[in-house]
């Protein structure tokens, strides 16, 4: 009965909508509670309490914040380009969500199991810069514009090394399909043989999501919150949510590329009873904790140091590792066999 | 059915946005329409089953090239009134050039014939099971590897050329030399002096003067070093 319905075009449509909701709602709840977790973790590291008033342990704080932001007035600056000004936050948030279409949560648990999943993720993350650059330009404000320029230069720089890291991983997998990337790590997570690339990828992910210590597109102390200085209310909230959704996405990418996706750390009895999606979520949570930990620990980079790290350290290093990895794979005959 | 509808939708948006690139008054809008055109072209690739080309188009053109375009165009100080002024003045010469290009296109289009040997030269079709990433890779890296490498060399030369043309060393600019900063030892910069109470610093023993390799380069020394 249900199988017959799902075979019809209408049934397929309903199934896909249901699958999209089943992915989006947990992601949105994750985003809401990531803001809470960030405040709690930072507070604990600075010997404070963090949000503890709204609900038990302050657990309803994200909802209180959301309601507050929705009640506020959306201010559109008079000299701004209205259409682009309103489009930019939607673009940022939308891009952060559509990338989840190809993320495999477990064996076979993926909305779109496409052949070029890695390229799709890379393409989506390289589009993220548009939300920022359009916001900066459409605001018609010099602080927003400066913030957008900084951010665009930063994201373009670190994308290059992320690209090389992804190529290194793909060389070891032999496929661009994300499920196969995970399956290739069944015996050994890529974290171990490709450890330097993992470090480069994680630091580049920090820069790509504009997180501390590379949060100078926002630079509260010099350019007063940077590219979204003119935004208020929901348009601001969408940028904010987009940033956190991107953090979760980058953690998911780190998990898939280096930490074995849904696979348990060791394929032994008590560990492999736990279902794959739970392992996946736990690994994402671990990466997110490191994101927050880094924010609590390191001061902001200076702009020239940021550029130096990206172009003069990470780019040659990742290029060298591409050459070394492909050389080693050829030399020892470890090249993955074609599908 | 759905694929045909999608094709006409994407093709129509592609042509409309390509027209807008030329017509749009505001250069930033023109670049944004160009990006929309790229997206629709990529969707057409997807419909044709070329998923690798589709995503490479988005990554390279939308993710990198168009960002740089937008970067440059956004910083232009455009005076729209002035732009409109020139329109009538440049209309004749622009029209003539456009006319010549149109005639050329028409001549090429009508005179174009496909050589009868051409179908024989085509590479054999890709079997169903092979993904088009693998098929493209095999074609580029086995059959056309020298041409591919030559294209890479051309790009490399262009890149080096661009750097050579724009890199200039202005005198008097203080640059940070991280290596020199990290190489500074404590003895070269710091002297611990025991001062008798009430005596003041009458004689400051100078630290061992070291030969400074680049005096200008790390002029502002260790205070601005490393991980600020």
Give the topology.
The complex is a heterodimer of chains A (about 350) and B (about 230).
Chain A: H1 2-7, H2 9-45, H3 61-71, H4 82-98, H5 117-138, H6 142-173, H7 178-183, H8 195-208, H9 220-223, H10 233-258, H11 269-272, H12 276-297, H13 303-331
Chain B: H1 2-23, H2 27-47, H3 51-75, H4 80-111, H5 118-121, H6 132-143, H7 145-166, H8 178-183, H9 186-189
Helix pairs in contact in B: 1-2, 2-3
The gyration radius over C-alpha positions of chain A equals 21 Å
The residue ranges of chain A in which pLDDT falls below 50 over 5 or more consecutive positions are none
Quaternary state of the chains: heterodimer
- Compute the number of strand runs of chain A: 0
Architecture overview:
The complex is a heterodimer of chains A (about 350) and B (about 230). Chain A has about 350 residues and is mainly α. Chain A is built from 13 helices and no strands. In chain A, helix 2 crosses helix 10 (about 235-260) and helix 6 runs parallel beside helix 13 (about 305-330). The longest helix of chain A is centred in the first third of the chain and has 37 residues, at about 10-45. The model of chain A has no long low-confidence stretch (mean pLDDT about 85). Chain B has about 230 residues and is mainly α.
In short:
Chain A has 339 residues and is mainly α. Chain A is 68% helix and 0% strand. Chain B is extended and about 100 Å long.
Note the main attributes of this structure.
heterodimer; A: 339 residues; mainly alpha; 0% strand; globular; B: 228 residues; 9 helices; 65% helix; extended; disordered C terminus
């Amino acid at each position: 009965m249900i199988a017959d319905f799902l075979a019809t075009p209408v049934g397929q449509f309903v199934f896909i909508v249901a699958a999209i909701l089943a992915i989006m709602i947990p992601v949105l709840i994750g985003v809401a509670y990531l803001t809470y977790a960030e405040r709690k973790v930072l507070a604990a590291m600075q010997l404070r309490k963090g949000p503890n008033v709204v609900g038990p342990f302050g657990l309803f704080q994200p909802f209180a914040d959301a309601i507050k932001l929705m009640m506020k007035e959306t201010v559109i600056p008079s000299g701004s380009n209205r259409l682009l000004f309103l489009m930019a936050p939607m673009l940022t948030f939308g891009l952060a969500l559509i990338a989840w279409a190809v993320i495999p949560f477990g064996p076979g648990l993926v909305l779109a199991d496409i052949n070029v999943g890695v390229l799709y993720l890379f393409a989506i993350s390289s589009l993220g810069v548009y939300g920022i650059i359009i916001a900066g330009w459409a605001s018609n404000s010099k602080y927003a514009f400066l913030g957008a320029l900084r951010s665009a230069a930063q994201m373009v720089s670190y994308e290059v090394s992320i690209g090389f890291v992804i190529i290194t991983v793909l060389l070891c997998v032999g496929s661009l399909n994300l499920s196969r990337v995970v399956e290739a790590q069944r015996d050994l997570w890529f974290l171990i043989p490709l450890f330097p690339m993992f470090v480069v990828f994680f630091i580049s992910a920090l820069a790509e999501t504009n997180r501390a210590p590379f949060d100078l597109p926002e630079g509260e102390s010099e350019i007063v919150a940077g590219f979204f200085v003119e935004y208020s209310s929901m348009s601001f909230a969408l940028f904010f949510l987009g940033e956190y959704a991107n953090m979760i996405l980058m953690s998911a990418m780190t998990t898939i590329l280096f930490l074995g996706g849904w696979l348990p750390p060791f394929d032994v009895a008590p560990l492999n009873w736990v279902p794959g999606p739970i392992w996946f979520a736990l690994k994402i949570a671990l990466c997110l904790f490191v994101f927050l930990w880094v924010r609590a620990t390191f001061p902001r980079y200076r702009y020239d140091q940021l550029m130096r790290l990206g172009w003069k350290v990470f780019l040659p290093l990742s290029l060298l590792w591409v050459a070394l990895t492909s050389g080693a794979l050829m030399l020892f005959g470890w090249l993955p066999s074609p599908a | 059915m759905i694929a045909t509808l999608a094709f006409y939708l994407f093709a129509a948006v592609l042509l409309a946005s390509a027209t807008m690139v030329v017509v749009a008054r505001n250069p930033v809008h023109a670049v944004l329409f160009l990006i929309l055109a790229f997206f629709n072209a990529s969707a057409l690739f997807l419909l044709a089953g070329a998923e690798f080309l589709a995503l490479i188009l988005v990554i390279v053109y939308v993710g990198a090239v168009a960002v740089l375009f937008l970067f440059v165009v956004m910083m232009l100080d455009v005076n729209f009134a002035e732009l409109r002024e020139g329109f009538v003045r440049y209309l004749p010469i622009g029209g003539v050039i456009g006319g010549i290009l149109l005639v050329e296109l028409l001549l090429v289009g009508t005179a174009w014939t496909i050589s009868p040997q051409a179908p024989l030269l085509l590479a054999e079709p890709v079997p169903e099971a092979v993904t088009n990433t693998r098929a493209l890779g095999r074609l580029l890296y086995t059959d056309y590897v020298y041409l591919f490498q030559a294209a890479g060399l051309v790009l490399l030369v262009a890149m080096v050329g661009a750097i050579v043309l724009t890199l200039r060393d202005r005198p008097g600019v203080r640059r940070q030399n991280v290596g020199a900063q990290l190489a500074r030892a404590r003895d070269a910069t710091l002297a611990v002096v025991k001062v008798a109470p009430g005596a003041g610093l009458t004689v400051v023993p100078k630290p061992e003067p070291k030969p400074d390799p680049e005096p200008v380069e790390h002029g502002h020394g260790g205070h601005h070093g490393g991980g600020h």
